[in-house]
UniProtKB/TrEMBL annotation, chain A:
It comes from Paenibacillus lutimineralis. Residues 85-275 form the ABC transmembrane type-1 domain. This is Carbohydrate ABC transporter permease. It is a multi-pass membrane protein. It holds the Pfam family BPD_transp_1. Its main location: membrane. The keyword Transmembrane helix applies. The keyword Ribonucleoprotein does not apply. It comes from the Bacteria. Belongs to the binding-protein-dependent transport system permease family.
Length: 290, 251
């Protein structure tokens, strides 16, 4: 214990009775919290293996008596998840390419190039961050409509290229790269684009990976915007399809519903567990700097 | 502006605003939004900081606990709705727990008086993990010598929390409070998915009404007018946020 860095309580405190009791209570509370955090996951996953009668038995049981895999077969029969999955990947791919090309070029020029009115442009982009997202939803929609982009994936890709948050995130990262590096590159005759592709991009792999992770989770989770701007159901991404056909469905039995929900929930969870380090790093980057 | 895609747009002065203020559902939706924000503050605002303090005191499994708390954040919104639709089902787990405690059954989503509360609980369950991590970062950043000195001076554990930990993360409290106000004032998706604004408009928020006006009634002009009103309020809130953010950097 002695070489551990202390926090609010020291090891001396632990010799006191009241502190011990308080600490035990705190541990109990945290345990209860952990259970409430994990319980909905557990019911969702386990209920997806139950028969519909078993879900409603009283008193409730967490574990299914026997695993009924046919729920999954039925779920896949009920909603086609393959095409929405491809749509989601398409959306994500487009978002990724656009934010890598346009957003990062913008961030690079704001950070490393001698641009006229650089400060003004930066402040302008930054000020758009202060506008609450809900208020520009309708103008955004109307703009896309007059551009004739409704029901096409450009309705997602185009706004992705104007993401002020991403520009600022990348710019602050590029600011951290040593200016001499680019000076040396320019002296050796490299063009700005070459500097960007050969120097800036390889050096900012960590920030790009966070950006891609954010892009992935937001494309995977967003159901509302796609249901607004896409009119033909065969273009819907996964989340919207699930919202329309599963959440709002009254004929689907709960066990089959849970099987679809489990399938939808797993990829982001796995993704998170794999890339946990990067995500936490990104949260620190984008989080409030106290 | 009268937005009409067939006849073209036409300028109609302040008519949209007049219509907005004449709408009887406007007051209801504003009241609901304020009630929703209040509940979010009452339930969701203090939880993350307390949990963060508790986690920072853990000697083992600290990383695991962080992960567990953050996990609901990963769940896609649609899965969240499905989960909580089931948890709030009249025959679902929430009522089973309630029956163990006091043999009283609730209609979580269809009772006017608790529908909003149910929504807030579901959203808090999902969202508080992210905020907890921010608080944790703040708590970890507090210099340990302060606690050491306080302990030598004879301050108890609670006194140390009261006089060192809480002042140490005060700026995060302020920022999180304003961020929460800005975020919750725009909430409508969970309401849409879980209750559809009902029962009897009890969960109809302002933003939900804007969406309804625009995409159900196809009255973009009136929806935009409501959006502008909201923009004015929220932007002034953001200004306050920006002010505090700028100040906390110096501190």
């Amino acid at each position: 214990m002695s070489n551990r860095e202390r926090s609010i309580m020291s090891s001396f405190d632990f010799k006191k009775r009241t502190v011990q009791i308080g600490y035990a209570l705190m541990l109990l509370a945290l345990l209860a919290l952990a259970v409430t955090m994990l319980y909905p996951f557990a019911t969702t996953v386990f209920s997806s293996f139950k028969t519909n009668q078993e879900i409603f038995t009283f008193p409730p049981s967490l574990f299914p008596h026997q695993f009924q895999w046919s729920n999954y077969v039925e779920g896949f029969k009920y909603v086609d998840l393959i095409r929405p999955f491809i749509n989601t990947l398409l959306l994500f791919g487009g978002n990724a390419v656009i934010s890598l090309m346009i957003v990062s070029l913008a961030a690079f020029s704001l950070s490393q190039m001698k641009l006229p009115f650089r400060k003004g442009i930066t402040i302008f982009i930054m000020s758009t961050l202060m506008i609450p997202s809900a208020t520009y939803m309708i103008p955004n929609f109307l703009n896309l409509q007059s551009l004739g982009l409704i029901d096409s994936y450009w309705a997602f890709w185009l706004p992705a290229g104007a993401s002020a948050f991403n520009i600022m995130l990348l710019r602050s990262f590029f600011d951290g790269i040593n200016k001499e590096l680019f000076e040396a590159g320019r002296l050796d005759g490299a063009s700005e684009l070459r500097c960007f592709f050969r120097l800036a991009i390889p050096m900012s792999v960590p920030v790009f990976s966070t950006l891609l992770i954010f892009a992935f989770t937001s494309t995977w989770n967003d159901w509302f915007w796609p249901s607004l701007v896409l009119t033909s159901p065969e273009k819907y991404p996964l989340a919207t399809v699930v919202y329309r056909d599963v959440i709002q469905s009254f004929v689907m039995t709960w066990n089959v519903k849970f099987s679809v929900l489990t399938v939808i929930m797993l990829p982001p969870l796995l993704f998170f567990l794999f890339f946990q380090k990067n995500i936490m790093h990104g949260l620190n980057l984008s989080g409030v700097k106290g | 502006m009268q937005v009409d895609f067939v006849r073209g747009n036409e300028f109609i002065g302040l008519n949209n605003y007049r219509e907005v203020f004449a709408n009887s559902a406007l007051l209801i939706s504003i009241r609901n939004t304020l009630y929703y924000m209040l509940l979010c503050v009452l339930i969701g605002f203090w939880v993350p900081s307390v949990v963060a303090m508790a986690i920072s005191e853990l000697r083992r499994f600290q990383g695991g606990m962080r992960l567990i708390v953050y996990l609901p954040h990963i769940v896609p919104a649609v899965v969240l709705y499905g989960m909580w639709q089931w948890l709030y089902d009249p025959l679902g787990p929430a009522n089973q727990i309630a029956s163990w405690l006091g043999n009283h059954q609730f209609m979580w989503l269809t009772d006017k008086s608790i529908a909003m509360l149910s929504i807030v609980i579901a959203e808090t369950w999902q969202a508080f993990g992210g905020t907890t991590l921010i608080y944790l970062a703040g708590i970890v950043g507090i210099p340990k010598d302060l606690y050491e000195a306080a302990e030598i001076d004879g301050a108890g554990v609670l006194q140390r929390i009261r006089h060192i930990t809480i002042p140490g993360i005060r700026h995060i409290y302020v920022l999180m409070f304003i961020m929460q106000l800005i975020g919750t004032s725009q909430g409508f998706m969970t309401h849409m998915a879980l209750t559809g604004g009902g029962p009897n408009n009890a969960t109809l928020t302002y933003m939900y009404q804007i969406i309804n006006e625009a995409f159900t009634n196809l009255n973009y002009g009136r929806a935009s007018a409501m959006g502008v009103l909201m923009f004015l309020v929220l932007t002034s809130l953001s200004m306050v946020l920006y002010y505090f953010q700028g100040r906390s950097k110096e501190a």
